[in-house]
Specification:
Blueprint: E1 10-15, E2 17-30, E3 37-50, H1 51-56, E4 64-68, E5 72-80, E6 86-95, E7 110-115, H2 124-133, E8 137-141, H3 153-156, E9 162-166, H4 167-174, H5 181-186, E10 192-196, E11 202-206, E12 209-213, H6 226-239, H7 244-258, H8 270-276
Helix pairs in contact: 6-7, 7-8
């Protein structure tokens, strides 16, 4: 793939600011007076997630990346055992200065929206403005434990040039729990869409053509942010007019690179993408 075709793009990434905290623990055993498992905190790693993580995957690909987020940060604290298995997580919020709201969204070649549905930042008025002013709009609306079933992408973003979502998010949006994924995709209002399917890879649709490809890895280290990496990497190439076959293959390469990274220790680079293509 010709990475030079996207190198001059300017991109605005919009969405929730998230801080992911990984707390690594050692299990000590059952408590002497209570039926709970005690653990010892060994260390903590803090990563910038959400809109920041999505933007980071673009820094090696395009000329300019800017971020627009609201006045809150979602803090996701995850507790892991000695083998990096996630045991449970705790969510909280804190206030933070909002980034500056762009005066004119049309100055950007691409606008990418990460709608995590955990804050009140992406109001109806802002969503309408984003859909109206964006020259090329790529969207995702995530389903998670804080919004499950109430953050359907087609209801919040009925218009976009590209949608990237996982299979559960697509099925929730289409109200189709069992139909073939191709039927699910046709119920959504997007002429260009990629549905990520975990270990099964991804299915894409554009120009009235479907393309499905298997995953590049079956041994992920951490699934956190894989879909966001796919959205970030694929959007500029979709804007540049690459085929759905190329986009799905690229998305699988981005997903494979991201699931090999614990948390957000690093971001997906051009070198990693080229190695997986």
């Amino acid at each position: 793939m010709d990475f030079g075709k996207i190198s001059d793009y300017s991109v605005l990434v919009i969405g929730d600011a998230i801080e992911d905290r990984y707390r690594f623990c050692t299990a000590l055993g059952k408590g002497t007076k209570e039926s709970v498992v005690a653990g010892k905190l060994e260390r903590e790693e803090i990563y910038k997630g959400g809109v920041w993580a999505t933007a980071s995957h673009l820094t090696d690909l395009v000329k300019e990346v800017r971020i627009w987020h609201g006045e809150k940060i979602t803090i996701n604290t995850k507790y892991l055992d000695g083998y990096n298995n996630k045991l449970f997580s705790v969510h909280e919020f804190k206030d933070a200065p909002a980034s500056a709201e762009p005066i004119d969204l049309s100055i950007f070649d691409i606008v990418i929206v990460n709608d995590f549905g955990t804050q009140n930042f992406l109001t109806v008025q802002r969503r309408e403005r984003i859909m109206r002013e964006s020259r090329y709009l790529a969207v995702n609306a995530q389903s998670n434990s804080l919004n499950y079933g109430f953050n359907r992408v087609n209801e919040k973003w009925p218009y976009a040039h590209l949608c990237v979502c996982d299979e559960l998010e697509a099925r929730l949006a289409a109200h189709e729990p069992e139909a073939p994924i191709e039927e699910v995709i046709l119920k959504l209002p997007y002429s260009s869409i990629i549905v990520t399917q975990g270990s099964k890879g991804a299915t894409g649709f554009a120009n009235k053509e479907f393309y499905r490809e298997g995953a590049q890895t079956q041994r992920p280290i951490d699934l956190l942010g894989a879909g966001d990496a796919v959205l970030a990497v694929v959007a500029p190439f979709a804007k540049a007019g690459f085929s759905i076959k190329e986009l799905v293959h690229l998305g699988n390469a981005a997903g494979a690179a991201k699931v090999a990274i614990l948390g957000h220790r690093t971001y997906v680079t051009r070198e990693q993408l080229e190695a997986n293509l």
